[in-house]
Design brief:
2 copies of one chain form a homodimer. By secondary structure, the first copy, chain A, is mostly helical. Chain A contains 7 helices and no strands. In chain A, helix 2 packs across helix 3. The structure holds a DNA duplex (30 and 30 nucleotides).
DNA sequence: ATTATAATTTGCCAAATGGCGAATGTCAAG
DNA sequence: CTTGACATTCGCCATTTGGCAAATTATAAT
């Protein structure tokens, strides 16, 4: 879990807190993370979850992702999507389909995809049955 | 811990794994995360740490941060993959949805839209019934 | 149908996270 | 020096994560 032993994260957090300045208890009040936990984080005895990092980032004046990057949870360089699996199929979305779908909330879009995958698996097993009869 | 009860993350991961296709064990081999853990994540029994998410993102063909965002660890705007929650008419297609759909032939894409519209009309009449109570 | 083989799920457990309250440390005022 | 008010650290422990191995379920093959 600990990657590299130098506890960069803890020192950075502590320094920022001191500079502001804030006490652990004040930071607790603003972030909702217990002061004991914060203290242990600062001196490298605990490795905070992404959740906790996000809670304290704001009160410390960090960008929300900044601490995640410093903690090594997030790689700073942007990656492009790997399209290894795009071998078959048209590789693009029909414009009409795109237009209709774009009008739906994202969660509906996702549900649609879910239904599609169910139908595909059904049709696969159905095909198999017929072919062996 | 669990934010929102719908286990989007698990479904997305599972679906992507199936689509590739990969077995849990193969994904284990590529990611170094045990298959039992992966299984539990897919069905929402475990909430993966950012660390684990980063390990499996690559083998699944996701951008490294993409899963973190989907998991709600990251609300960031660098790529702003998912600003769902914005309810209606996002006006755009979720990149993940686009990716999956683009793998299908156009006629399948159109069929999907057709099914969607049927479901919408069904749900509309159902809603009407409720509202008159 | 039966067996073999691969894939998924479950039971169990070690290790880590993170909170609460007590103990300890720090420092200014008397 | 002593007291009192804060700040920090420690002890303890409930909860979770995540791995290993056994059990179960699905998939082929004969």
């Amino acid at each position: 879990m600990n990657e590299g032993n130098t506890n960069n994260l803890g020192r950075i957090i502590k320094q920022q807190r001191i500079t502001l300045p804030l006490t652990l208890q004040e930071l607790t009040a603003k972030s909702g993370v217990s002061s004991s936990h914060l203290g242990r984080i600062e001196r490298g005895e605990r490795f905070p979850s992404a959740h906790v990092l996000r809670k304290i980032a704001g009160p410390l004046g960090f960008e929300e992702d900044e601490l995640l990057i410093l903690a090594g949870y997030l790689s700073s360089q942007p990656h492009r999507i790997a399209e290894e699996s795009l071998g078959y199929g048209s590789g693009r979305i029909d414009p009409y389909v795109a237009k209709v779908l774009a009008q739906e909330p994202v969660e509906v879009q996702r549900s649609v995809i879910g239904i599609l995958s169910i139908l595909k698996s059904i049709s696969k097993s159905a095909t198999k049955e017929y072919s062996t009869t």
